[in-house]
Amino acid sequence: MAAATYGADQIQVLEGLEPVRKRPGMYIGSTDVRGLHHLVWEIVDNAIDEAMAGYADMVLVTMNNDGSITVDDNGRGIPVDIHPTAKKSALEVVLTTLHAGGKFGGEGSGYKVSGGLHGVGSSVVNALSVSMKAEVFRDGSSYMQEYVRGKPKADVKKTGKCNRQGTCITFTADPTIFPVVEYSFDMLLTRFRQQAYLTRGITIGVMDAREVRPEEDLVHPRLYRFSFDGGIGAYVRHLNESKEKIGSPIFFGKDTPDGMVEVALQYTQTFQEHVLSFANNIHTAEGGHHLTGFKAALTRTINAYARKYELLKEKEDNLTADDVREGLTAVISVRLREPQFEGQTKAKLGNAEMKTAVETVVNEKLAQYLEEHPGEGKEIVAKCLLASRARLAARAARDSVIRKGALEGMTLPGKLADCSSKDPTECEIYLVEGDSAGGSAKQGRKREYQAILPLRGKILNVEQARLDRMLGNLEIKSLIIAMGVGIGEAKDLSKLRYHRIVIMTDADVDGAHIRTLLLTFFFRFFPELIENGHLYIAQPPLFKIQKGKDVRYAFSDEQKDAVLKEWGGGQSATEDFSEAEESEEAKGGEEEKDAKETKPKTSTKIGIQRYKGLGEMNAEQLWETTMDPENRIMLRVTMEDAERADVIFTTLMGSEVAPRRKFIQTHAKNVKDLDI
C-alpha cells in the first residue's frame, strides 16, 4: 500500500482568532464551568488593571436576563483612534488580535503593573462569544462596535456625546463551545469580594439582573458592593471570621526593587493552614516563587525568635515548616512589572526574583512585629511548639498505620470486602453506613472491581482533632489502610488502590451527618483526591413505586410525582407498604423473598415505599439502583472554590458555636423534607 501523501497543501494556517475557537482549552484552561467563568475573569482583570494603574475606582459586573455578562468600568476607556500599523481602530485591534494590548511596553506603556500581560484576554473572550458589544466612553464622546464570534459586524462608530470615561463590554458565551452556559452568582461574588480586598480604593459591584435565578437564597438583594480600605489585612480577618483567633491580623508591606510585597497573616486555634497567594491581583492557585519565599522566611523568623528568647530549648530540634503553618491564615500579594505566569490561566508565578523579595520583607517585618508584640509572639510560638509535639506523636501513630498497611491481603481491615482486580483505574470502594447496608452491598456487588468497607457509627470529626488523635479512631484507620496511600509526610497518592471512592449513606439526617464527616476528612487530609476527581457520593433512590408487577425507582419527589402522573395515580389511589411489610415480617417470610416487596391489593392501586435507609433494600435492589454502572447516579465531589469550602467546613464542623448557629438560622428556611 502506498504511503499517504503529505504535502504543503495539508499544512493549515489559522488566522485571526481561529486558533482560539479550534483549541479553547489552550487559552482558558477548559470549556467546563471553570472555563466559562474564566471569560468573566479576563474582562474584569482588564478593569482591575485600570484601577491598579490609578485610573479607575469602580467596576460593575452584571448577569443579564438573556444569559450575557456586562462588565462596566470608569477607567480611561480603550483607545479608539486609528492604530499606526494595523490601520484600523485600536479598539478593534485589541478585541480581534491575539497579543495586542497596552501592557507590553515596559516603562513607556500604559501600565506599570497588570495581570493581563499576555494580551490575549479580551480577544479570547470575543472569539469564544457568540456575540460581543464594546462601548467606550472617552474625551466627551461614546463609541461602539459589535462582533459575532470574534469578527466585527462593522467599523467602530461614534454614537454620541457623554460625560463619563470608561469601557463597557457585554458578551454572550458561545453554546457551541461551552456545554453549559450558566454562571454561578456565588462564584462571581467570591471572586470579586477577593479582588476588592486586594485593591484598596476600588468598589466592585456584582448585580444579578436575571428574572429566574436558581439560587434560592439570593432572592433579596440583587446588587452587592465590595470595597475594603483594610486591604488584605481585612481579607485575613474575613477568612478567620468563624475561627478562634490568636491576636490581631499582622499586616506589613514594602516596595522593593523587584516589586511591591504585601503580607497579612494571623494564627488561629485550628489545625489547618490556609495560605493564599496573588501576583498582580491574580490568584496563583499553584503558588510560585513568592509563596516559596514566604514559607522559608516564616519558618526561619519564628525559629530565630523562639531561640532568642529560649522558648525553644537548646536540645530541642527546630520547628519545621509544617509546625509553623499549623492554624495559619495568610495572604501574600505581590505586584511586579513583568510577571512570568505559567500558562494563560496564570496558576503559578515563575519570577525567581520574587522569592528573594518576599523572603527579605517577611524576615525584616515579621521579626520587627514579634519584637514589638512579645505577648502575641510567645503565644504564636506556643502554638507552633504544641504542633511540633503533636507531630511527633502523630508520626508514631502514622507509622503504625503505614506498617500495618504495607503488607497485603490479611493485613487489610478484616471488614473490608476487597475486589479481585489489582488495577486501580477500574477499582472502586464503597464506604457504606452500617453493617446491614454493608451486608447487602457485599452480596450485590461485582467482586471483580467493587470493594465494600462498612463503617460503624459516626467517624471522628477531624476538624477538631490532630493527626495523632485521628489515627486512634478505628474507622479512620481502616479507611486509610484500605486506600493504601498513607497519610501526612508519608502520603503517596500513586499508591491509591481505588480510583473511585464512593460515599454511600442513608437518605436521612444521620446519613447526611456521616457524609459530612467523611467529606471533612477527605477535604482536610486528602484534598488531592477531590481535585483529581476520585471522590463520589452515591445516590440511592428515595422511593420504590409499584403498580402490579411494574416497579419504578424515584430519586426525588419530582420523579415520584412524574411516575404517578404517568400512571394516573394520586393520593387517593396510593398506599404505603409499611403495614404490609410489618405483617410479612411477623410471619417470618422466606429468606430469599424480599420482605419489603408486597403486591398492591388491587391492580389499580399504586404502592409507594419511602426508603429511610440502605438496609431496607436487599442486595438485588441495591445493585440495580445504586451500584450498577449502567443505571446508578453518582455525584462527583469537586472543589471549585477552596476558600469558600474552607469557610463552610470551619463553620459547620469547627469548635466555634456562634457561627454555626448563625448559619443554621440563615439557611433553615431553605431546608425541605427534614427527617427528625
What does this structure look like?
A hairpin with a 2-residue loop joins strand 4 and strand 5. Helix 10 crosses helix 11 and helix 11 (374-406) crosses helix 14 (474-483). The N and C termini lie far apart (74 Å). With 676 residues, the chain is an alpha+beta fold. The chain is built from 21 helices and 23 strands. It is globular. The strands form four sheets. Strands 1, 2, 3, 4, 5, 6, 7, 8 and 9 form a nine-stranded mixed β-sheet that branches. It has four domains: 18-226, Histidine kinase-like ATPase, C-terminal domain (Heat Shock Protein 90, 2-Layer Sandwich); 231-390, Ribosomal Protein S5, domain 2; 407-540 and 636-670, 3-Layer(aba) Sandwich (Rossmann fold); 543-610, no CATH class.
In terms of topology, how is this protein built?
Blueprint: H1 18-22, H2 25-28, H3 33-52, E1 58-63, E2 69-73, H4 90-96, H5 121-127, E3 129-138, E4 141-148, E5 151-152, E6 157-161, E7 166-173, H6 185-198, E8 203-208, E9 223-226, H7 231-239, E10 245-256, E11 259-268, E12 274-279, E13 282-283, H8 289-308, H9 321-325, E14 328-335, H10 353-372, H11 374-406, E15 428-433, H12 435-444, E16 450-455, H13 467-470, H14 474-483, E17 500-504, H15 509-525, H16 527-531, E18 535-538, E19 543-547, E20 550-554, H17 557-567, E21 574-576, H18 578-586, E22 606-610, H19 619-627, E23 634-636, H20 642-653, H21 657-667
